[in-house]
Specification:
Helix content: 10-25%
CATH topology: Pnp Oxidase, Chain A
Strand content: 25-35%
Order of helices and strands: EEHEEEEHEHHEEEEEE
CATH class: Mainly Beta
Amino acid sequence: MTNISNGKKKTKHKSFKKIIDEKPISLSHEKKQHWKGGTLLAPIPPALVTVGTMEHPNVLTIAWTGILNTIPPKTYISVRKERHSYPTLLETPEFVINLPSANLVKAVDFCGVRSGKNLDKFKEMNLSLVPAVNVATPLISECPLHLECKITDSVDLGTHTIFLADIVGMNVSEACIDKNGKLQIEKCNLLAFAHGEYFTLGKKLGSFGYSVRKKKNKPSKS
């Protein structure tokens, strides 16, 4: 992956790509240190999550999110009770997960460290709001992918509350869809977050199921 700093790309570990191309990386024989339990899981998506309504919106950056179920499609966001958006989620039990591209890295960071209680984060970061289809919460137009979500339950875990939600709709930028209607995720240039740093996705190494997929035989020349 490529490290993002101040909106500019900065490649780390220049030999990484060469190693990937030449042979698989194996750390199975490296010495390991045992640490106490913590929140080190990476990479994760630094999502711009919108809450509220078109008339009274807010946005916060959420990295603790993911997929929970297929049918029905379910997701979650994990939110601290101190966040300005927390009571809004209780009052308006809907949200939108807006997945940002690399050019939005500054906005992603800003919306994670500044509170909507004191300023208009949309205005500060030049983010445009457009109505969603199935929820009252708006979308951030500059993001290429959006998950419209309706909260079904919440679980208080201590420092954070998990809001479980049904994914009731998705919105995809046409620039990320090919002529056959297939999503080309690589064109979205999505961000990743790992241990306090932002990255873009790197070289594609395979696709789901490629390890067992039969290779197509090339037609013989006659």
